[in-house]
From TrEMBL:
Residues 11-321 form the Enoyl reductase (ER) domain. The lineage of its organism: Bacteria, Bacillati, Actinomycetota, Actinomycetes, Pseudonocardiales. Keywords: NADP, Oxidoreductase. It comes from Actinokineospora alba. InterPro entries: ADH-like_C (IPR013149), ADH-like_N (IPR013154), ER (IPR020843), GroES-like_sf (IPR011032), NAD(P)-bd_dom_sf (IPR036291), QOR-like (IPR047618). The keyword DNA-binding does not apply. This is NADPH2:quinone reductase. GO terms for molecular function: mRNA 3'-UTR AU-rich region binding; NADPH binding; quinone reductase (NADPH) activity. SMART domains: PKS_ER. One of its GO terms (cellular component) is cytosol. Gene3D superfamilies: Medium-chain alcohol dehydrogenases, catalytic domain (3.90.180.10), NAD(P)-binding Rossmann-like Domain (3.40.50.720). The keyword Hydrolase does not apply. It comes from the Bacteria.
Amino acid sequence: MTKAVVVTRTGGPEVLTYADREIPTPGPGEALVRVTAAGVNYIDTYHREGIYTLPLPFGLGLEGAGTITAVGDDVGDLAVGDRVAWADALGSYAEHVLVKATAAVRVPDGVDDETAAAAMLQGLTAHYLVTSTYPARPVDTVLVHAAAGGVGLLLVQLAKARGARVIGTVSTSDKEALAREAGADEVIRYTEEDFAARTLELTDGEGVAAVYDGVGRTTFDGSLSVVKRRGTMALFGAASGPVAPVDPQRLNSGGSLFLTRPKLADHVATEEELRWRADELFGSIVDGSLKVRIGGRYPLAEARQAHEDLQGRRTTGKLLLIP
């Protein structure tokens, strides 16, 4: 038997159950992994709440890192004993999980398992945002919401590495210090001043080339108002709730704006793209140019507390569950 966090009914963090499950057997194209660390992400709360529906019951979590203990047929060059990480294996809040061989990436020497787990889903998200959704350039000023969060800290670093000027929003002085440490040129405490007005002030009224917004409902209108002519509004999450329907005419009146709602799956749709993004991320971690902040480690049995802390905005960086 193995331990796992299971959802038998949707709802708040109280629905999370720490339970015994049979250790699964890998089928064709699958590897069984002993999980060293599982990443906690906002999408997990959407699954738990039923915003993104899954057949009940289900094991929670998508991301993690660990060591392969068994393999099925047709797994390519993966082998027992390999250290791997992944961002798309449902049921990753567990001691053991089945991972598709096409979703697993080898963890290089110089990257420990906890860092690998912390870097996958949020790191790949930050990577596609600044390289594909809106490729940040040295001539650009961009706005990053929740700049001290898991994705935010990585976004700030990756945008700065591409030469952009970065404005970040945070809620507290401690989070401001983290955002500045990551390289943010300007930091706005949205709890003390209007971030939209301050952003326009910092850009001499021109606005920003792109807004990377994972907050959603509470920031969307202000974000759209600070995008410069022909700029991009990238809404990649909804931590504060879903955004109401948008009249496309707002994009016209705002200056021929681009609005997109990207997701990770469409940016790692092939093995080649997944490995390209993962290789760049791990390479930056190994050479020290990208720092992954682990903001909290919880025993696997305390997944409920991790969710409460994440949704209560009491966290910075990445949260991990440790079996």
